[in-house]
Amino acid sequence: MELHASDEAANQLASQRLAGEMRAELARQKRTASDLAAALGITPHTVGRRLNGDVPFNMIELATACRWLGIDLSEFVGRVSTDAKALAS
């Protein structure tokens, strides 16, 4: 299955929004990217690429991060969806 340019752009935007919400949650909890990297078992460089939206979080990373942060995965994703709807209005 081929992705069209609009699909790729939508995926990139979704990745950036998830990354932004993850950065915001880390800030709310006064946790660092290095803390997240340790929780995920990946390098700080790799988590940095996830947090700036260059590389999307995979589902295992996202679920692990949410569990570590003490938030429900569906709540986290819902925040991003709600933000996207608000921006579109």
UniProtKB/TrEMBL annotation:
SUPFAM superfamilies given in the database record: lambda repressor-like DNA-binding domains (SSF47413)
CDD domains xrefs: HTH_XRE
Protein name listed in UniProt: Helix-turn-helix domain-containing protein
Domain HTH cro/C1-type, chain residue ranges per copy: 26-79
